Amino acid sequence: MPSIPNAETVEPFGLQRQYNMANKYACNDNFKIEGRPFAVCQNTGDWKVLFTCVNECGPDGLHLEEETASCIKHISTNGSTWKEARTICQQQGGDLVSIVTKAKWDSVIEYFRSVGRAWIGLKDKRWMTGESFNNVFEIKVQLNDYDSDYSKEDENTCGIIALSSSTPLQDENCNIRKREHFLCEIRMLQK
Questions:
Q1: Distances 182 to 23, 28, 72, 88 between C-alpha atoms, Å
Q2: What are phi and psi of 150, to 5 degrees?
Q3: 0.70 exceeded by pTM
Q4: Distance between CA 73 and CA 152 in Å, rounded?
Q5: Alpha helices, DSSP H only, in 46-186?
């Protein structure tokens, strides 16, 4: 039988290499099937695989293996407040990304370098995981609870990454300012 990355046989019909018989497959956890879930034994004795198993993060997502596997997805809209962005992430089964380690920061910054300014899961100097902000990133931050465009607003404490800025981690107004980009983190199933 063919060895197919990230897949297992669920109904083995062609075990004895019977021509034109197929084995049915399913993808492992955190992968989805693209195509028809079969491998067919050809009359040449070769197997024709009719599917692939792709990471659920998709081509625009970053798959991280840390304590728990997660998928960080870049979402684009016509403009969302921080609260709207968070709601969209929650509707996908996750939350805005919490970046609590230097290794995770480095991975996110490298992968999403072209995004520019994007909402992340930081509010009132706390990550969505509940952890307090701690600058372990060796970067300049501007978390001063102030947004010059909305200085009279009292909720100017929502985090963004601003990768083209000399201050790549900042806070801005949560309720009025709109950003076209944000990063969602979705926990994935463990095997």
A1: 41, 28, 10, 10
A2: -130, 55
A3: yes
A4: 33
A5: 82-91, 102-111
Could you give the CA distance from residue 81 to residue 145 in angstroms, rounded to a whole number? Answer: 16
First to last CA, the chain: 23
Residue 14 near residue 41 (C-beta atoms within 8 A): yes
For the stretch 105-144, pLDDT in tens is 998 988 888 888 999 999 999 999 999 999 988 889 999 9
Average pLDDT, the chain: 86
In terms of Cα–Cα distance, which of 2, 47, 59, 60 is closest to 20?
Answer: 47
Q: Which of 49, 50, 51, 57 is nearest to 33 (CA)?
A: 51
- Determine how β-strand 169-172 pairs with β-strand 141-142: parallel
Nearest Cα to 66, choosing from 113, 101, 110, 111? 101
